[in-house]
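hey so i finally got around to running the thing on that chain from the lab meeting. sorry it took forever, my laptop kept dying and i had to restart like 3 times. anyway pasting the input first so we r on the same page abt which one it is
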Amino acid sequence: WEKQAGAPVAATPGESPAALGKQLFTSSTLGCGGCHTIAAAGTTGTIGPRLAQVLKGRFHNAPFILRQIVTGGSSYAVPGYPANVMPRTFGSVLTPTELNALVAYLQKVSK
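ok and heres what got predicted. didnt touch it at all, straight out
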């Protein structure tokens, strides 16, 4: 995904963190949608789990767990998918604002 990174995604003034997170998720900058499916985001990746299904009802009140999963600092693995596949560079590539926004979007997806 790093070789395919595109232009940085910038927040629009007044935009919610979850909206920015969705932009990040669907952008070529991170490539999340290349591995994960979230129908509402229009992504169809099959390498990783279908996040809307896996997250549903699980992590919407646990941003710290989502943060660990996104940054590769979690051993959480979805059955049927290998552990430790998430790139471990997201914690250093994303700004704190971007990481918070991506987590906010995943919390929204998990409700």
